[in-house]
Amino acid sequence: MSVVQAVALLTVACAGTAVVLIGEPLRQILALGVYGLTLTVLFFALQAPDVALSEIVVSSLGLPLIAIAALRKIRQQERRHEQDERRG
Amino acid sequence: MSFLPYAIAAWLFVVGLWGVVASRNLVRTVLCLTVVQSSTYLLLVGIGYRSAGRAPIVADIPAVSRLVDPTVQVLVLTDVVIEATVTALLLALVVQGHKRFGSVDPADFTTLRD
Amino acid sequence: MSPRARLGLFALAGPGLLAVLVIGFLGLPAFGDYHGVYGLVVDGVELGERHATDMVTALNFDVRAFDTLGEEYLLFASVVGVVVLLRQLRGEHDDERGEAEREDGEGGERDGHDGSEHAFAGASDALRGLSLVLVPMLIALGVYLVIHGALTPGGGFQGGVVLAAGPIAVLVAGRYLAMKRLAPDWALEALEAAGAGAYALLGLGGLVLAGVFMKNFLPLGIPGHLLSAGSMPLNSIGVGLEVTGAFLLVWSEFLDQALLVRRGADG
Question: B60 to each of A24, C85, C204, how far by Cα in Å?
């Protein structure tokens, strides 16, 4: 196993653990983007360019957009619930 | 040393599962589930690797070179894109659940218990 | 089950699961020591048989095209689920007029009367200029990736997501309603259904013209040229359209929820 592969594997492990340990969902989404980037580098090191392309496109575009839109809706709904409670 | 990819795949699986079990916020649960899914990608691509193999594209290298296994790459490639939409489905469930119950804490989802 | 009980159970089960996984993985052949036969056969045979230079896409859209059909419809089903879940419920309404007013108000009313942030209004000119440059580049890159699937790394799945990023760049420029006009929901649904249907129809074409479902029935051409590898580019285009439609629809649904749908009588 080459040095690049070993370093990429260790980075992936650290990034994955960081995603799980971070408490706030918004920061977790950023961490997930970085995690996807480390996975992409690992897939390149393992001679899988198609998979790397797929992973970087999904983890930088697909997932963060969906998750951020969902989080925004939840925050909005929370604010509305607070307003209703204050009024009622 | 050559066991490292598999060890890290197992570690990511268990760590992600711990995140799913221990989280108080359903959005966190869904995002930790993504880590669990990615551990399977790592395992599959690691299985298909051939030492000193090249990527399975023969556009510029002779077709008889030593190539890595393309089969597992096919599985992982489609899986990555599809799991993103499945995660979207789960997040849609969370959003509607929050609308109904007013919180994203799984302990507050009480209808089934009443 | 209380959170503490859950964590306690996991403290027992987690290390056990880790141990089982590690013991199981120890039985695998060592990393780099590939024993399988199927991959080697495909690597050796695919160039001669199908004139495709990207083995992964050749497996995806030709040798194992049936699996890709199933996975494509998995994508389709998830998106249908998202659309159904995020439909407008009774008591909600679409606040398009309010959003249009906020967009035209160029950041003047940063915090509206209900205190919610409308960060999309008032995007700076630098951001707008950047997305103007990005939109054609993204679309060109997406089309390139989709069409050259059988030749170089790429294919319908990757290219589809990149293509879907084009209208998103319009959104980043602060024009959510412009993006809705560029990519209205009915067009996205039609696009996605057309992509999924095209893939299945190509399979039927293989059945009709070559006797086997999903068989490559177009002339194979010269390996390395754009029009080669038979019906693989067509399969790739079908999947690319479907993935583009799917992602844009999912983003549209979530952003609709976040930006447009308002509950009850306010707005």
Answer: 46, 47, 34
How far apart are alpha carbons C207 and C201 in whole angstroms? 10
Predicted complex ipTM exceeds 0.85: yes
Tens-place pLDDT, residues C105-120: 444 333 333 333 344 5
User: For residues B38 and A39, is the Cβ–Cβ distance under 8 A?
Assistant: yes
User: In this complex, do B58 and C47 lie within 8 Å of one another by their Cβ atoms?
Assistant: yes
State which residues of chain C have pLDDT below 70: 1, 89-123, 260-267
Domain count, chain C: 1
Model confidence over B93-107: pLDDT tens digits?
A: 998 888 888 777 877
Partner residue facing B56 (CB), from C7, C17, C56: C56
Is C31 inside a domain boundary? no
Is C8 contained in some domain?
Answer: no
Q: Report d(CA C161, CA A58) in Å as an integer.
A: 7
The contacts of residue C257 (CB under 8 Å, 6+ apart) are A69, A73, B95, C86
Query: In this predicted structure, what is the pLDDT of residue C3?
Result: 78
Query: Is C155 an interface residue toward A (CB < 8 Å)?
Result: yes
Tell me whether residue C125 is in a domain: yes
Neighbours of B15 (CB within 10 A): 21
What are the helix (H) ranges across chain C? Answer: 3-26, 38-50, 55-58, 65-85, 96-104, 125-147, 156-172, 176-182, 185-210, 232-259
- With 0-12 CB in 10 A as exposed, 13-18 as middle and 19+ as buried, what is B57? buried
Whether the Cβ atoms of residue B53 and residue A50 lie closer than 8 Å to each other: no
Per-residue pLDDT tens over the stretch C26-52: 888 888 777 777 777 777 777 777 777
> Which residues span the domain enclosing C234?
55-107+120-263
For chain A, the farthest-separated pair of C-alpha atoms sits apart, in whole angstroms, at 65
| C77 CB neighbour count, 10 Å cutoff | 14
Give contacts of B45 with chain A, Cβ < 8 Å.
43, 46, 48, 51
Q: Which residue of A56, A61, A63, A71 to mutate against C (max C Cβ within 10 Å)? A: A61
Q: Phi, psi (5° rounding) for residue B18?
A: -60, -40
C: neighbours with 3+ CB pairs under 8 Å? A, B
Q: Is C183 left (phi over 0), alpha (psi -120 to 50) or beta?
A: beta
Q: Is residue C66 part of a domain?
A: yes
Domain ranges of chain A: 3-87
Q: How confident is the model at residue B29 (pLDDT cuts 50, 70, 90)?
A: very high
- Say if domain B4-108 classifies as CATH 3.30.360.10: no
Cα–Cα distance measured from residue C213 to residue C204, given in angstroms and rounded to the nearest whole number: 6
